[in-house]
Task: structure prediction
Amino acid sequence: MLRTVTCGELNKGFVGKGETLTGWVDTRRDHGNLIFVDLRDRYGVTQVVFNTQMSADMHKKAESLRSEFVVRVKGKVQARPAGTVNAKIPTGEIELVAEEIEILNTCQPLPFELEEKSVGEELRLEYRFLDLRRREMVENLTFRHRVLKLVHEYLDKQGFIEVETPYLTKSTPEGARDFLVPARLNPGTFYALPQSPQLFKQILMVSGYDRYYQIARCFRDEDLRKDRQPEHTQIDLEMSFIGEEDIMGVVEGMIAHVFKHAKKIDIKLPLRRMSYQEAMDKYGCDKPDLRYGMEIKNLTPVFEKSGFRVFDETIANGGEIRGLCLTPPAGVEFSRKDFDDLTKWLQQDYGAKGLAWFKVTGPAQAESPIQKFFDAARIQKIIETAGAKTGDIIFIVADKFKTAVIALGALRCSFAEKYKMIPEGKFELLWVVDFPLFEWNEEEKRCDACHHPFTSPKPEDVPLLDKEPLKARARAYDLIINGTETGGGSIRIHDQAVQSKIFQLLNFTPEQAEAQFGFLLKALTFGAPPHGGLAIGVDRLITLLMNRESIREVIAFPKTQKGTCLMTDAPSPATERQLKELNLDAKKMWLHHPKKA
Result:
């Protein structure tokens, strides 16, 4: 090794010893005869002192040092003089007095200062090799490593076996668009990069590997946002001869293990279970954030036969009147324009017909454009049911159940973020269970799988598949952390007849089901055990644990929201020769490329 210790290793126990450090020049401070250099590597920072009177050559080299030069320094460790100790860093009690220095490499002027907070993300991603040197990025990736190490340890102790599954596989519909890879040896055919190891892990269960896991790479060609990437990593596991509670128990034990050893936080087990219906009813979404209140209230009974036409017609048509109570922070006043802007937002983004509101001014008293339609007794009942007090604002949406609660759920999240109602450093975890098995696709007039087509219906709901499939519930479960779906899974279908029935309800012909999933259907006829599993998004989990703004902050080499890598300039055109080798029409492909190889 070119070094004897790292830049984060030295302490008072090394005083008087000769040591050699290597690293990058973080800062240089010239004090005349003394030049101080903070030398940095991924382990930490050590102060190096150059006494220029010791050597003219060393003095010249020390003066030439600039940010991010790579150097090797040999010297003697000494305690820092009284009054100069830096208690903020582990090496702050000592310094290395340089006796020799070797410049291993120089560095061009930097496109940005590494610790500058206001650097644009695009510039950081273009120079990711520099951005990854920043202390925050080192912490992010080191923490990610520690979490995955804890996961490996925990699952190994639980009897799981790690099995790798293929990256080049068959294209099967799993909810997102596949990335396709042309197969040169089989002209006109394509592999797909896996959206998940779903089918292979089910095959492993059929094969008798009753506890499988994998830190799996998954690929989905879908529109991106801050918590999505075209390639992501998940903790993927599957178990045989189990029920929902068995899997949830193993997974929440693993999560508690991670929290305890990576964050020093004890998670109370078992985690809370909440039905999908309760989550939608109270929070307007299937991934509720329980770190703050503002539950949605059902005001439908309060407004029955109120005489207010809009509400009466909504109730008569099977809709509901839902309300959300906000306690505005001190000094916050809502203007008419504020209410109008909120109404327009909910109409455009969530399909709500409108937004009504009441400002509570006292017992049985409220200000509202529609207050004249209600007597004092009904207004008092509105206030009581909404859980409001003087000064609060009650927001109301009258619409179909799902439209009303989703709109108010979005309003709830918006208020919590805008008015800083979310406690810092708090974690709320829960399971959401009892999801619908199907949702109705209005455009294509057919059922869609809410999770994926391999999710088992609850045994008592199997008879519903023939007559009322939309009422069937799934044996599915999602792990929610602070309002983010961090993991999800289900008990799978292990009966070939039930699987074929599900494919039929999803509008697959027998020929299509055989073409897409024939190998799975065949496997299910060869002694498939009851099984189920779950996948946890590693990128989302680390982002939550480290309280980062985006998953791109915890991925070494992420893509932009347009799916590009600014550092490598990927994706890029293929050469005409490459396209010919793949039996693709080179002329047509090149016509559609804005860049030429």
Summary: DSSP finds 18 helices and 22 strands in the chain. The two ends are 41 Å apart (CA to CA). The chain has four domains: 12-105, 141-161+195-232+240-275+428-562, 292-418, 567-597. The CA atoms of residues 112 and 119 lie 7 Å apart.
